[in-house]
Protein 1
Amino acid sequence: MRPLAQCQVLLAAVLASIAAVASTSAPAQDRAGERAAMIETIKSHARSAPSAVGRQGIDPAVLETMRKVPRHLFVPEEQRSAAYRDRPLPIGYGQTISQPFIVALMTDLINVGPGDVVLEVGTGSGYQAAVLSPRAAKVYSIEIIPELGKRAAARLAELRYGNVEVKVGDGYYGWPAHAPFDGILVTAAASHIPPPLVEQLAKGGRMVVPVGAPFATQFLMLVEKRQDGSITTRQLLPVGFVPLRGGGAR
Ligand code: SAH
């Protein structure tokens, strides 16, 4: 009897420890708690953003999307522990994944909806494209560094962001085959607003693009194309992006 009883105790202990591991490791892997904290940080950052941003805060629907996208799976292994801090992180090849607040703000500013087609210039890690994915019908994203483009495309497919299409190329020239776009996000700083992208913006569409000299002060610009085809631009806030490269950017 005695050995059996000991066995049962041991079994119970093993089962309890398996249950404990299961209940702590699943959320730890998913990191939902860290994402929730990141959302709170974005909200407080938005409250203190310059009034030029002209917003009452980030659209709650954008924050809900960001609550679900696993940012830690878009950064290199050695950056994973910092994935939910509100700051940019290196992703290799001298490039960075943008700060979560900036991703939230840019996503909010182009204000796209379920039927819309969006263009992103500067796929990088693919994170911004993943945040756009559930908010649009289709997301086209262009990356100039082949290794980053291929890696992001594979990651987005693996995580089942099925409506995102990535191509390697110079995004300065847009993607004419899929134009016009209801929203365009440029995630690298241009010396000027690229005319081909203005051309490819739909009537009623919005483009958000950082403009300024590399490594100097840049400003996030909001470009809107009215129904009559006229263009308005608004300078929103100072930002720091990696430079837009390629033929047209010079
Ligand atoms: N949106 C990205 C962050 C991008 S960092 C993310 O969510 O991770 C800017 C990216 O723009 C870099 O990967 C850089 O290689 C790319 N880039 C720079 N110039 C470009 C160009 N002309 N066309 C396409 N991509 C460009």
Protein 2
Amino acid sequence: MEKVKHGLAAGEPGRPENPDWTIDQNWDSYTAVDHGVWRTLYERQSRLLPGRVCAEFQRGMAELPIGPDEIPDFRRLSEALGRRTGWSVVAVPGLVPDEVFFDHLANRRFPAGHFIRRPEELDYLEEPDVFHDVFGHVPLLTDPVFADFLQAYGLGGLRAQSMGVLPNLARVYWYTVEFGLVREGGDLRIFGAGIASSGGETLFSLEDPSPNRIAFDLERVMRTRYRIDDYQETYFVIEGLDDLLALAEIDFAPIYERVRGAAEYEPGDILPTDRVLTRGTGAYHAARRKVA
Ligand code: HBI
Ligand code: FE
């Protein structure tokens, strides 16, 4: 759960010199506390993910120099990743403007936040840090299908922005790359980085009776708002990572025409046309609304 602030305005502190917003990871400047936070999060997720995360993620994690002892060095990570799919990991200060983000993806560079959350905010953060970005996103970039899909998303993002339909495309990203579930055999597995990097949401997304789990449908997802401040009310499920390859090949232009101006759905809505895998009780968010 992070997101949404779309980068800093020019002149605000933190804006880097480089037009592509990249900075040096400055690996030597991480403190023992920083590496300790990494270890805590790494160990928690490594206990939770086997049997819950998709096979491609597990395999990618095993192949990369990502371990419990220290925050990964982006240079070593990029070498290993580059040999497999041609992707690299570059350091950025946090969220970057959309067009900068898309341009990196379109060129098979994954922009990763170089900072790590503080020990007192282990479970919640607003901007993607190195744990979310590297532990959550990078393992799947070893998968050729996912690697091509994310590049296509970058290219599609630049196009969507010029057509004024970026919010619709951003929902596809949200409900797949960040919070996607995938069917594996008869079971549901996690592939979204926002889930895979969150202990609470790993369990909530798969095992809690509260959220809906609905078969992924592109136009439906493009019209569905999402929550940025809490667990999702609905998770969308693809049949396999190959579905993403098909997504990358679809011509979105006619779909954008239909979706533009069409009614939008709330995060918890269930439609008569949905293929519902689990109808959630909604109990979790109902309780939160009462408190608010
Ligand atoms: N910047 N570093 C970073 N990470 C993101 O995930 C990100 C971003 N900028 C914009 C953005 N995501 C989204 O708004 C787009 O996917 C639409
Ligand atoms: Fe992310």
